[in-house]
Amino acid sequence: MNKMMRRGLCCTLSVALLSLCGGCADSTHGTSGTGSDSAQNSETDDAEAQAYRAFTVDALDNYASDNLFDDKTDPILVNKLGSKIMHGDGMIPFKEPIDGSNSYEVAFMCKGEEQAPFSFVLYKDGQPHTMSTMGGCASDGVQSVSLPAKRFPDATSLSIINIGGTNLVVSVYEVREAER
Hints:
5-stranded antiparallel β-sheet; 36% strand; Jelly Rolls; disordered N terminus; alpha+beta; globular; signal
């Protein structure tokens, strides 16, 4: 009986942890809007599908510059900090530190045969700060997460902890808020 209770508790905890990881995926923002201009949304969806099919850094960067940083309500691209294609864990060293009033923006695409979690972790002087943990690939497209630099200033790299060996294309940018 004791063994059955432990097994049940373990299953319950596993389901709860997976639910939490799934909730983290909701913190990302997709790039396809839901505005009334369906032609523009269709073009964005097509561009996103093309970027995903190409699955390259250039395709991701082109999509991001045209769709993530392209109007008065979107963040304004200040600088690209780095990028990488990876299978498994990886690290992207930053070319330079960012201004403390700006934000880190991570755009990514992922492909995986199974839903395996992965995390984006900023590092500074060996100290980590988790930006986001994803429960797996949430869509067949471009996703992004951001963090204001004032919450973790002077980061020197982004590490990707990729437990299941998901294929990822990742670019990290410095952005600032659009003037409203």
